[in-house]
Amino acid sequence: MNDRTFRLIKSGTHQQMVCFHHAGGTAEYFMPWKNGIADDTAVYAVQLPGHGSRIQEPLLHDLHQMADQIAAACSFLPARPTVFFGHSMGAALAFEVALRMQRQGKSIAALYVSGRLPPHKNTGTDFYRQSEETLLNKIISLQGADMDYRQPELKSLLVPIFRADFAAIETYQRRCEQRLNCPVIACIGETDSEVSVSDFRQWCQISNGTFELKMFSGGHFYLNDQRESLFDFLNQCLANKNQPVMNV
């Protein structure tokens, strides 16, 4: 596979997981998953234009345009059972790509969503329009102060990326009421400041398949601190032989 949309995190022969990162993230965010996901499962991570290894490409500001490009690139993926995992912005993006795949008769086996309002609910925020300082404060509140986002060189590189991604997710609106036909597994941190558990449960409305809610200790980025617990849960789900098998 040579399409630049996907980065291979780890190989596997039975099934594959495609991961969609948060706003401002890159495919490299999922590198630790190389040693966490079961040996029989390949892991790919989406690399959006203007991010990571695609830094020289123009940024996208529309989530539907992102989804169109990723869905088209899915033809480069091996034909085997496929699940999607999306965190925050990536959850909405994974849902939209899954819809496009289903319309093409190439349904995924399951959709894992994490830390994001369901598609029919809007954030009601417009950080992408705000000042650089306001946007940086929002980024730090979500991701912590481990990186010095105000360091001039880092700021000049990352602020346009965050602004584009925030524009994509904050202006995103679901265009149709079509439902998926696959199971939906929703993962959330118990103290996530971005979405309440009651709102998060409404992901059950986007599919005709089964729905499961899994809560983890932590906030919006629980998957950093609770990585091993998340891996254990995902591996249990991936090993479930009752999971429908459909190829991309």
Topology diagram in text:
Blueprint: E1 6-10, E2 15-20, E3 41-46, H1 63-73, E4 82-87, H2 89-103, E5 110-114, H3 132-143, H4 152-170, E6 184-189, H5 197-200, E7 211-216, H6 222-225, H7 227-238
Parallel strand pairs: 2-3, 2-4, 4-5, 5-6, 6-7
Antiparallel strand pairs: 1-3
In short:
The protein contains seven helices and seven strands; from the N terminus they run βββαβαβααβαβαα.
Question: Could you please describe the fold and organization of this structure?
Answer:
This protein has helices at residues 63-73, 89-103, 132-143, 152-170, 197-200, 222-225, 227-238, and strands spanning 6-10, 15-20, 41-46, 82-87, 110-114, 184-189, 211-216. It is of the alpha/beta class. It has a single domain (6-124, 179-241), classed as 3-Layer(aba) Sandwich (Rossmann fold), CATH 3.40.50.1820. A seven-stranded mixed beta sheet has the order 1-3-2-4-5-6-7, sandwiched between helices. It is globular and about 45 Å long. InterPro entries: AB_hydrolase_fold (IPR029058), TEII (IPR012223), Thioesterase (IPR001031). Belongs to the thioesterase family. Residues 16-236 form the Thioesterase domain.
